[in-house]
Design goal:
The structure holds two protein chains of two kinds.
Chain A lengths: L11 E6 L4 E8 L3 E9 L1 H5 L6 H22 L9 E7 L3 H18 L3 E5 H12 L7 E6 L4 E8 L2 E7 L5 H11 L6 H9 L24 H17 L5 H27 L3 E5 L6 H14 L2 E3 L3 H4 L4 H12 L20
Parallel strand pairs in A: 1-4, 4-5, 6-9, 9-10
Antiparallel strand pairs in A: 1-2, 2-3, 6-7, 7-8
Chain B lengths: L1 E6 L5 E7 L2 E8 L5 H15 L9 E7 L3 H18 L3 E5 H7 L7 E7 L4 E10 L2 E12 H14 L4 E4 L1 H5 L1 H7 L5 E2 L2 H4 L3 H13 L18 H8 L6
Parallel strand pairs in B: 1-4, 4-5, 6-9, 9-10
Antiparallel strand pairs in B: 1-2, 2-3, 6-7, 7-8
Helix pairs in contact in B: 1-2, 3-8
Classes of the chains: A alpha/beta, B alpha/beta.
């Protein structure tokens, strides 16, 4: 517990995030108060290519990293000297993209004589809940769903996780992207499917809900993705017209049902009173609605970050970085980008 | 006047501090491409040994490219972070020019080359006319045979020979030997790799010419677009 006592000085974290296609910087006070949260998104640039091009993303990060840091300090009405520490995402993510943030953060911290704290990207996503929900404290269950991750975790303490289940193949967000591409919605798939699904009937098509043999809490989305692609191919060969809205809604329901079922089963098994979601897919309206309803029925408090904190951002890294900093985590100047960094590892 | 030189464009990682007319410390490795881990600790060593704080540095000079995209980005992000935090300017030093400048006063046509794979090299041509440093060909990416022929033609004009340096000269030594009509000269080990000392010293020349920019503005010189952009361009599609 990090209760702010009168003897404690305020802690200001300058946080930097560059793990994929957003260059972001933020200033966070005492872990949960966001003084600034600046995001430079490259989505428009990558839309042309139907997905994130690592080399283009890395170059853009080099261009944006200093302007974004400067803007974050300016918006917070603070200087680098006012900061207590510098936190940076060092994995998981695209290695070339991560390296830009890590290199810049190390140089800034070194030159400004501040401690450096390397932060796990997913730990950041989970921490986004602390920013929006001041009452939320570990332990709780959390469902992390994004373009690169699908994890069901137990947050046992600040910065401490037990992984209960994870995807065996595609991440949930990846399945959204692939299905969106298949029906011509383009990139990024998550928000586009969400929107399209609102016009469709989620009961129109029944897709399989993949189970992983012998590991109830693990996920698998590649089978579902293939079923959608097969459905489209079959319809094409038969000369049948596919209702894209029905397909989007039915596919989305298949994903949401599985996520809801496993998260609720886990909460029930362990008797948790709090369930949080995190990651880009956490802003999906159907998933939020489904979990809100299920939690209400089960008498469980449901937490989700506001949409801006679901996407990649540095405020969440600043929050996670604060708790890491307070528990004594310090990174050395040889901190490297770790593209496949596992949750709970350092 | 203190200039911190940084080199991380290829296999070499190097940091050096130029204080007035002397290189007071230099730390260079040609070992592994682990620059993301080694570069900042090397800079820190140079600063610590010379009892220099980042704010004491007047100008940050960095090898701007061409070179390995990742290496250039590590150097660029590092120098931007240092210069931003210290509120000092950045001078981008063409990597190949710094290498050639290290051969000050040489009689040869200087041909630095770095392996760009598929028998292509990042290369340029320079020579000294007394103390004047002359660029004969700006940084470019060419097949080895083409630059060797061009370098030889330049050397023939002045009755000189060509000095090859850089990792490209090692990788394509056989190609150079079989292409060159006149006997090529290969730089010895202490001269052939890029060095942060040369980046700092040539950085000073460029700084005095008014070529400094802010940490916001500095960009590495990749010379090549990303593979994805090249493919779209080849297909006649827009890239922005």
């Amino acid at each position: 517990m990090y209760t702010k006592g009168t003897f404690m000085e305020d802690v200001y974290i300058l946080a930097i995030e560059s793990s994929c296609d957003e260059t972001a910087a933020a200033v966070v006070k005492n872990g949960r108060e966001v003084l600034s949260n600046v995001i430079s998104s490259q989505i428009a640039l990558h839309t042309l290519y139907g997905g994130v091009v690592p080399e283009i993303a890395s170059r853009k990060h080099v261009e944006k990293v200093i302007p974004v840091v400067h803007e974050a300090l300016k918006e917070a009405h603070m200087t680098l000297d006012d900061m207590t520490a510098v936190a940076v995402t060092y994995g998981p993510g695209l290695v070339g993209a991560l390296l830009v943030g890590v290199s810049a953060a190390k140089a800034i911290a070194f030159a400004a004589n501040k401690p450096l704290v390397g932060v796990h990207h997913i730990e950041g996503h989970v921490a986004a809940n602390f920013i929006d929900h001041k009452d939320l404290e570990p332990p709780f269950a959390c469902l992390v769903v994004s373009g690169g991750h699908t994890h069901l975790v137990e947050v046992t303490d600040y910065g401490k996780f037990s992984i209960i289940g994870h995807t065996r193949d595609d991440a949930a967000g990846e399945a959204f992207d692939k299905v969106a591409r298949a029906i011509g919605l383009g990139y990024p798939g998550g928000p586009k499917i969400d929107k399209k699904a609102k016009e469709g009937n989620a009961e129109a098509i029944t897709f399989p809900k993949a189970k992983v043999e012998g590991a109830f809490y693990d996920f698998s989305f590649s089978g579902l993705k293939s079923a959608v692609l097969n459905y489209l191919n079959h319809a094409k060969m038969q000369g049948e017209e596919v209702n894209d809205a029905d397909l989007a809604a039915s596919f989305q329901k298949a994903v949401v049902d599985v996520l809801t079922e496993k998260a609720m089963a886990f909460v029930k098994e362990k008797g948790y009173k709090d369930l949080a979601i995190a990651g880009g897919v956490a802003s999906n309206s159907a998933l939020r609605a489904s979990l809100t309803e299920a939690c209400e029925k089960a008498g469980v408090r449901f937490y989700a970050p506001s949409p801006i904190l679901c996407t990649d951002n540095a405020a969440m890294i600043g929050c996670a970085g604060y708790y890491e900093y307070m528990s004594g985590t310090r990174s050395d100047w040889d901190l490297n980008a770790v593209p496949n960094l596992k949750l709970g590892e350092r | 006047m203190k200039i911190l030189g940084i080199e991380s464009a290829a296999m070499t990682a190097s940091a050096a501090l130029l204080k007035d007319d002397a290189i007071v410390c230099e730390y260079t490795t040609n070992f592994k491409k682990t620059h993301s881990q080694t570069l900042l600790p090397m800079i820190r060593s140079v600063m610590e040994i010379t009892e220099t704080a980042a704010k004491d540095v007047d100008v940050f000079a960095v090898s701007e490219g061409p070179g390995s995209f990742t290496g250039l980005r590590i150097g660029a992000a590092t120098v931007k972070g240092l210069a931003y935090a210290a509120d000092k300017p950045v001078v981008g030093v063409p990597t190949l020019a710094a290498m050639a400048y290290a051969c000050h006063g040489s009689q040869y046509v200087l041909c630095p080359m770095m392996d760009a794979r598929r028998t292509e090299v990042y290369t340029a041509l320079y020579r000294f006319d007394g103390e004047a440093f002359i660029c004969l060909k700006e940084s470019c990416c060419l097949p080895v045979r083409e630059i060797v022929a061009e370098a030889e033609a330049c050397a023939a004009e002045t009755g000189s020979r060509v000095l090859y340096l850089g990792d490209g000269a090692d990788v394509y030594k056989e190609v150079i030997l079989s292409t060159a009509a006149a006997a090529p000269v290969f730089a010895p080990a202490h001269m052939k790799s890029p060095r942060a000392s040369a980046v700092a010293e040539y950085g000073r020349v460029l700084f005095e010419q008014g070529k400094a920019v802010s940490a916001f503005e500095f960009e590495p010189v990749y010379l090549k677009k990303s593979q994805a952009e090249q493919e779209r361009e080849a297909a006649g599609l827009a890239t922005e």
